[in-house]
Amino acid sequence: MKIIKQITFFIMLIVVVSACKKAFTDTSFVSTAATASNLSVMFNITQDNTGLVTITPNGVGAVSYDVYFGDTTTIPVNIRAGASVQHIYKEGNYQVKIVGHDLKGGTTTFTQPLVVSFIAPQNLQVNLTTSNLTVNVSATAKYATFFKIYFGDSTNITPEPYTSALPGQVITHNYLNAGTYVVKVIALSGGSATTQYTDTIQVSKQIDLPVTFEDPNTNYTMSDFGGDVSTLTVDPVNSNNHVMKVVKTAGAQTWAGTTIGTSLGFAHPIPLTNSNKKMTVMVYSPAAGLDIKLKVDNHSNPNNGLSVETDVLTTVANQWEMLTFDFSNPAPGTPAFNPSNTYDLASIFFDFGNPGTGSTFYFDDLKMAPASLSQINLPVTFESTTVDYTMTDFGGNASVLTTDPLNNANHVMQSTKTVGAQIWAGTTIGTPAGFAQKIPFTSVATKMSVKVYSPAAGLDIKLKVDNHTNPNNGLSVETDVPTTVANQWERLIFDFSNPAPGTPAFNPSNTYDLASIFFDFGNPGTGSVFYWDEVHFLSQMNLPVDFNNPDMDPTVTDFGNNSSVLAPDPANTGLWVMKTTKPAGAQTWAGTTMGTPVGFATPIPLSATRTKMTVQVYSPAAGIPVLLKVEDHNNGNNYVQVLVNTTVANQWETLTFDFSQPQPGTPAWSASNTYDKCSIFFDFNNAGSGKTFYWNNVILQ
Predict the structure, then answer these.
(1) SUPFAM superfamilies from the entry (predicted)?
(2) Sheet harboring 163-165: ordered strands across?
(3) Cα angle vertex 258, ends 257, 263, to 5°?
């Protein structure tokens, strides 16, 4: 039975297989299938600037499609009928080719143009901030992929350079020069459509101390109020200098003023401290005696009790002068200086308290006064930045620190004896406190020198020294010297051992620590202008002797009819030497003692190993004998002398005198003797014939 079932199964399998084979060989239905035709394609382009396109082919009789994207992709994608394919394009124009396949193996081709365009960036937001010469730029925009930033300072370059930035990225740019610039930001989305933003900015450095009006990159905008009108202009005296001109217009308020800068004030706080509360301003005023106020405040909270102000009067008209404002001395009824306040705003008021009349003022060089200015002391040179050169005028004098009329690199004091000034008008050198130390006069050292530039020769210049704690009370001494040249510098030497008639005599036991100078003494003021400089105490002559030493008394003592005078070096411009003439008929032994008859301040330190002295000599001929003699000023019998001949004519040479080899027939050097006096003899042992000699630099070797 089992065998019959198996035979039956195989018979049935054979029948089924035979039936199936007949079905697969019947392809008559293919010949009746439709041919691919009426092809089309649908593009679905996303609107997010991604470039994503969904491609869906359609057609009659097509069972599948080859899609050629039309870009750089060379291999097509085959999809079944009714399906879609996605592809990412860049912005542009493309020819998309569709090849439809039908059941008969036939193909039909169709090409459809595709345009992919990106949307321009939207809602462009630009954040732009400036600080001094720096600008910071950042940008965002919908659809933007990046930004091009043009800063406007390279428009002369083709193509104009730019800086790329990502959305939200802050780009910092530093301008080389202050000015007005057009900043342009272009937002890009990956295609040709862009969105643009432009803004015009001004960049400059915020004003700060010191204010010089010379930096082209600083914003010198002033903020006038109350009727003032200010403009940046050239110095009325020096066209190479820039200054601020302020007109207090007719009818301007009594409190009209000018804030130095904008309402933002200075870039940094004014460094006022308890130890330095002073500021200085150069002012050119139309009149003397006008009140100039300087007020400092806090820019973020002005006029609210955080200020301090002080006043100074002008002292000259139509001239520059430096005014010093001391905030430790505030104007009455105004707040006191407070070191805990932040002062970063300053305003200046011209002719404060009076209504405007159209007067014009100039100001320049606002700055902190040098910290801890020291009290004036000898020598007075007007060149130190740490010395208080405040002068104290009286009787109608007007003094101001200025530049040398012959040398702009040198600072001097200018004193004007104004029209109508008293015959005794003068200037105390410093404040009434005088010098920091007393003048070191002695019974021998009684001289001072001052360099003076006078408008005329023959004018009486008086120098008076006194005691600052008890002035004008008989503790003074004064002496006079006339000028000898006009409109030139000369050094005047004042010898207080020769006081002016009818005035107290010099007393070395007095304390002299105050000095005053009087120009054209005895005559009323006519507006004459004098310049002066280099106030020195002259110490007693000592080795080495150099006639260019401004602190040494250059006095020499001639005898035997010699004639000596301080004179310019005949070979070196700007140097001073002693000129000695041995006139016709002068004694054979005519000579010149260095200093006064009391000799040097200290003994010459000759020793057994140090017996030589040198002198620089300029002689009219070679072979002229020159004698150098040293002695004890208290005992002329203790001396030693050496004779040396000149070797050149009309040239400088150094003559060496060895006192271990004295002139024959004269005393030998002795270690037990004191030698503190020195004399020089030109053309020794010969009568005077009018020869002139120059000499300097007497040195112990």
Answers:
(1) PKD domain
(2) 163-165, 146-150, 179-188, 194-203
(3) 125
Give the pLDDT band (50/70/90) at residue 190.
confident
Q: Going from the N-terminus, what domains does the chain have, and what CATH number goes with each?
A: 27-116 (2.60.40.2470), 122-203 (2.60.40.10), 223-368 (2.60.120.430), 392-538 (2.60.120.430), 556-700 (2.60.120.260)
CA atoms of 546 and 539, how far apart (whole Å): 13
What is residue 2's predicted lDDT score, i.e. its pLDDT? 36
Residue 200: what pLDDT?
Answer: 97
Q: Coil, strand, or helix at residue 2?
A: helix
What are all long-range contacts of 355-358, with beta carbons under 8 Å and residues at least 24 apart? 355/251, 355/252, 355/253, 355/254, 356/227, 356/228, 356/248, 356/249, 356/250, 356/251, 356/252, 356/253, 356/256, 357/248, 357/250, 358/247, 358/248, 358/249, 358/250
Best CA proximity match to 558, nearest among 600, 593, 584: 593
437-491, pLDDT tens digit by residue? 999 999 999 999 999 999 999 999 999 999 999 999 999 999 999 999 999 999 9
pLDDT tens-digit map of 628-663: 999 999 999 999 999 999 999 999 999 999 999 999
Q: What stretch of H or E contains 18?
A: helix 2-24
Rounded to an integer, what distance in angstroms lies between the CA atom of residue 315 and that of residue 309? Answer: 20
